[in-house]
Structure formats: C-alpha cells, structure tokens
Amino acid sequence: ASLVALARRLVECRACPRLVDWREQVAREKRASFADETYWGRPVPGWGDPTPRILIVGLAPAAHGANRTGRVFTGDRSGDWLFASLHRVGLAAIPTSTHPDDGQRLVETRMVAAVRCAPPQNKPTTIERDTCAPWLDEELAIVLPHVRVVVALGGFGWTAALTALGRAGVDVPAPRPRFGHGAEVTLGELSLLGCYHPSQQNTFTGRLTEPMLDEVLGRATRLARM
Ligand code: SF4
C-alpha cells in the first residue's frame, strides 16, 4: 500500500451523501473573495512527510480552506495558526500555507483530517465520522512504523486518533485517556499529545494562544527526536 495510491482512491470517495452535497455546493457557490478560483471540492488526503515522526490529526477540511485548495489546513485561519507555529518550532519550511504550490514543506511531520470532506458547520455526524474512519486507519497503517508522536487537535481529533491507533494494534488503555490541552499519554513507543484545535472559536477567544500551541508542538518535536 502506498500513500499515493491511497490518495488516488480517497479523492473518488462519495460515501457520505450529505458531505458530498456540501463540499460540491460550496465549491460551486464559492466565497466572493475566492470567486476566481477553482475549488477542490473533494476529499482531502493527508499531506506532508511520507515517513513522518509526527502525525497531526485534525477534524475536517474547512469549507473555504482545504475544500478550496485541496491541501489539508491550507488557505484557512486554523492553518494560519498551525503553520506559523510549526515554522516557529522548526517543523515547517515557511510560516504560511496558502496554496499547494506555495513552497511549503513539512519537516518530519504529516497532517491528516479525521474526516476527509468539509462538513456543514465543521460538524460531521457520528455516522460520517465512522464512515470516514477507515481512510485514517489505512493512512495510519502505512505511516505508523515511522511515527513517534501523534498530536491530536481538539477532542474530535483525539478520539479519532485513539480509535485509529487501537485498530492499528497500539495498546490503548481502558478507560481511554481524556483529552485536554497539553495532555500527554505514552502508548508503548508512541506519545499522544492533546492540543486545543486552532479554530477561530479557540483563537479569537484566547482559549488557545500562540505560546500554548508552540508549547505542544515544541514538546512533540523534542519527543520525536529523542
Ligand atoms: Fe468519503 Fe470520508 Fe468524504 Fe465520507 S467524509 S465521502 S467517507 S472521504
């Protein structure tokens, strides 16, 4: 199994009727400021280092972000925060991520969305989450031999990461460890770190600050290089 072959199959997926409708409707109607652009409007594959030491698990593509650019966390406000922080801790070549040909490159890091299509209000249903989970399972199975640290963004990413890790044969304790910002769990050879999602809901309100984000990603960097 290769990541390229996986992405090729993924982008053809139409398993969730509501999300297919939404991603395509957004891509047709567009936001006025992006009216000249051709939206991606399809499932968004994982992106970054194909043999990553750090795997970042987010929620789902933003309607006018990754659903527009086709690259995870690229072209939206959450991505602005995330890539700036990744750059500060040495995991991204440049501090911005605006377009697939912007020269951005992740260092030892890969990022994926737990649900691969943009959902209305950024809220996938439980059925959509479960329907999409096999794509994360497949990607994790390919990269897991390299991964030392999983960073879960938000409670949704945390649950998705733990579920996928459990299915990949990693020993996940029961009851499952709880999500929190800065939560750190050792799972055999792996570390799982929790981080508030850099959504506008969290960054506008000050619930997540730049130093808080840098702290978790800096910790991930140190753990990955130990
Ligand atoms: Fe397929 Fe996942 Fe998109 Fe559902 S969310 S259509 S399972 S890629």
UniProtKB/TrEMBL annotation:
<keyword id="KW-0479">Metal-binding</keyword>
<dbReference type="InterPro" id="IPR051536">
    <property type="entry name" value="UDG_Type-4/5"/>
</dbReference>
<keyword id="KW-0408">Iron</keyword>
<keyword id="KW-0004">4Fe-4S</keyword>
<keyword id="KW-0411">Iron-sulfur</keyword>
<dbReference type="GO" id="GO:0046872">
    <property type="term" value="F:metal ion binding"/>
</dbReference>
<keyword id="KW-0234">DNA repair</keyword>
<feature type="domain" description="Uracil-DNA glycosylase-like">
    <location>
        <begin position="45"/>
        <end position="217"/>
    </location>
</feature>
<dbReference type="Pfam" id="PF03167">
    <property type="entry name" value="UDG"/>
</dbReference>
<keyword id="KW-0378">Hydrolase</keyword>
<comment type="similarity">
    <text>Belongs to the uracil-DNA glycosylase (UDG) superfamily. Type 5 (UDGb) family.</text>
</comment>
<dbReference type="InterPro" id="IPR036895">
    <property type="entry name" value="Uracil-DNA_glycosylase-like_sf"/>
</dbReference>
<dbReference type="GO" id="GO:0004844">
    <property type="term" value="F:uracil DNA N-glycosylase activity"/>
</dbReference>
<dbReference type="InterPro" id="IPR044147">
    <property type="entry name" value="UdgB-like"/>
</dbReference>
<dbReference type="GO" id="GO:0006284">
    <property type="term" value="P:base-excision repair"/>
</dbReference>
<dbReference type="InterPro" id="IPR005122">
    <property type="entry name" value="Uracil-DNA_glycosylase-like"/>
</dbReference>
<protein>
    <recommendedName>
        <fullName>Type-5 uracil-DNA glycosylase</fullName>
    </recommendedName>
</protein>
<keyword id="KW-0227">DNA damage</keyword>
<dbReference type="GO" id="GO:0033958">
    <property type="term" value="F:DNA-deoxyinosine glycosylase activity"/>
</dbReference>
<dbReference type="GO" id="GO:0051539">
    <property type="term" value="F:4 iron, 4 sulfur cluster binding"/>
</dbReference>
